[in-house]
UniProtKB/TrEMBL annotation:
This is 6-phospho-beta-glucosidase/maltose-6'-phosphate glucosidase. The active site is at D171 (proton donor), Y266 (proton acceptor). It comes from Fonticella tunisiensis. It comes from the Bacteria. Residues 195-418 form the Glycosyl hydrolase family 4 C-terminal domain. Homotetramer. Keywords: Cobalt, Glycosidase, Hydrolase, Iron, Manganese, Metal-binding, NAD, Nickel.
Amino acid sequence: MKTFILTIAGGGSTYTPGIVKSLLMRKDQFKLEELRMYDIDAERQNKVAVIVKEVVKEMDPSLKLVLTTDPEEAFKDADFVFAQMRVGKYKMRELDEKIPLKYDVVGQETCGPGGMAYGLRTIFPMIELIDFVEKYAKKTCWIVNYSNPASIVAEAIRRLRPNSRIMNICDMPVGVMRNMAAILGVAREELTVDYFGLNHFGWFTKVYVNGEDKLPVLREHARVHGLLTEDMSKVDVQHSDPSWIKTYKNIKYLVDMFPEYIPNPYMQYYLLSDHIVANTNKERTRANEVMEGREKRLFDAVDQYLATGEMNKDAFYVGVHGLFIVDVAISLAFDLRKRFLVIVENKGAIKNLPDDAMVEIPAYITSNGPEPVRVGEIPTFYKGLIEQQLAAEKLLVDAALENSYEKALMAFTMNKTVKSAFQAKQILDDLIEANKEYWPELR
């Protein structure tokens, strides 16, 4: 049986135990010879590894587990790299969210000014990671990348490392499919969807179950309930936090006004920005919810284990985040041609968008990479929104590569969550101050 060396870059993430468990649940199909955790923060990674070691001991005790902060040790002869870096960690995410809110602009991790701040932190560390992989790993190695904000990161990679073997993916559409499946009373794997857009900026146009389009059924449900079931904790513990309940509920407003398609939930930040700001606690954002929730649960479980030897297995959760990245890797490894929503260079797939746009659409995942499904032309309303968002993302990457304050200001002004250039400048200047340690210099 073929075996693989796999490295998780960003090993100190609280998602890592769930990803490892997802991998080991599939060991009969995707056998690991060696699993490596790589992070620049050794202390945090060592804490997360306490849980990971228990998962490995329980599920595959023969598996070699390596913890390292050394790139050569991490990537030497690797077959796969799962990238999930968070540059600046939750301390910087909190600022990404709270600085825009100070000016009554959406504060969010990947959308609006906060997402652009995160993008400027992530572009060059991601390029560095690709270079490490290309230097040390097998020439056939695939990077499967979850690092956010995915559209901005993918655009930078397209320009700076166009030949890299990288699959840019996001679990948000898969999370929506999980909710859709629960509403329809079927398994997520039974759904086949059509979708177009950019990452965190797109629409479901068809949702097939056994060849029948269930979008009309889902649309009627969404108009009343959003994409929620009666008890979301039974669907996904992780996405039953108050902020996620609100996010999935807000879809009802969008579907009621624009019933043609079902939007990615993150479209709320662009199309309902005044409503989002008015209903946000500016002192306690999603970053605080995560730090006080998922992060605290995991690290409390580590402390409990070290003190008592007892492991709280409810401290982490195997959700679509872990399941999806493993599904993609298996399709790459064995040329399965499974159909997933991924981020690819457009190249005519969406006929009336630029060829060089990094779009999120269905593709068949082969051992040579994605084979995108052609979407055709999209209607004017969606095309116009996408082009505005795409322009903001491209200008931001320009700003990073050219060290251009003016291009950054253009990007912030162009973003639909921002109301004026005055507002864009205030937010940008505050974020420059907050990100001195991380951003390229803007002149």
